[in-house]
# Entry
Amino acid sequence: MGGVEQSVFKLGAGETAEDFAAGLVGFLREFRWVHRERFVEFFTGGCYDAIPGDWKPWLTGATEGDLRLLTAGKIASATCPASLRRYVDLCSKYTMDRTHLPERGADVKTWKTCDNILKRGLTPKKQHEVERMAHTIEQTCSQSARASGTPVQAVVDVGCGQGYLPTFLTHNYGRRVVAIEAASGNVDKAVSRGAVIEKAMANKRKRKRPDSPDPACADPSAAGHVSYVRAFVSPDSDEDTLDALLASCGLSDAQRKNLCLVGLHACGDLTPLLLRLYARSARFDSLAVVGCCYYKMGWPAPPSFPLSQFARSADLTPSPDQGLIGPVAAQLACETSHRWVTMGAGEWEEKQKASFHRALLEIVLQRHFSSAERAYAVRSVSRAVRQMSFEDYARCSLAKLKPRKAQFTDGLSPPDAGGFSRASPSAGDAGVAPVVPLPDLGEFHREHAAQAPRLLAWLALRECISPPLETLFVLDRVLFLKEQLPSATIRVFPVFEQAESPRNVAIVAVKGQDSSHY
# Structure
């Protein structure tokens, strides 16, 4: 792959991927108390009590700089307890190395960028992702062609969204793309956007010289083609179903071989589905996928985790009394812990305030609302609301609680767009929600304010273990491919800038090779 591949797992000398995975599982099991509870349950779940006693003085007395460094897997303070330093060092060991990105200078001839036409509808983040993912796919296709002696016939993008990646691959690399998307609204938008781009490209060709290096000016017969398909690919989709879907896009039997299967931020169960499909279908010779949203994998018992036999034997799945990884850990694996180091002072203060208010609100929810009512989660509130006093924040948040809106014993209704208003429903009004006997919220906040440093320490410990949790999900998927396809070349490397796109690790594979690279 032109030298752009990079191992993300920090294997020691002579250490195998399985050895590394065993050590990671042991570490996560030892410190399960850190990733077992949601952060909102800090007060109600007794989370502070789980922190070792010799850690607490240092954590609650740590400076802002110390806590920021801790989330990055570093400790500069000489007074830090040895056991806490060990925890941080292990977090660092099991964090994927995302520092070595493919650079344009390494292969500038094949690295394409979006022009003003292809930028249509793209945010800077999405443009960054599309350009880098397309480059990775092109390199993977080239490697596959060299290994098999047969060019890749088509790229199959499952979960293509609004078609940004397929359009880029077609116009900048001349690739034939089958773009599969379950949401009909996304397909309609992709087709519409594609038509507008094609028209703009045609107009540009009329105004430019035929020998211009601009891709828009190239011979349209040399360009690729995108076929959009409304379809839901499921774990039950068999070879015949897939074959019929590809044939419906105009691919001949010969063209339905040596395909490249891709997914850009294939969410939740979609990435495991693509890995299984790639492993069992002879039609796909190469793979390039970036996963995300591990918490959307059908918890509490997702069929797609763990994937590998190795991980299955490690008892990772959650159960009432045992097991290691559950939906809380999966959510934590998606945290952007690197942001703790880079966020400004104002954002840092805002995060502390918002986290403390939400954890405090959980006490109110559990004391004054039934479990059935709490099942309807408090919806996200605006940034402006997060900056309010706790009393106002609680009122705004509880107003969003379903199935009933809370009313308050002091007669104040939750604030709306125009501010607070008096609520004076008569006792006989039909449909009026029962009064919730809330405490004096201002006094309630003051009673707990001294515990804010404890919550911040707990959050820092959680952020520190977030990257190792993501490592487990990625490593499980890599081990699955290794078990299923022992002769394939498998590479894992960061493809996006983490600051631009936190879920940035690509799993790339080509069948028929002699070794697997980690």
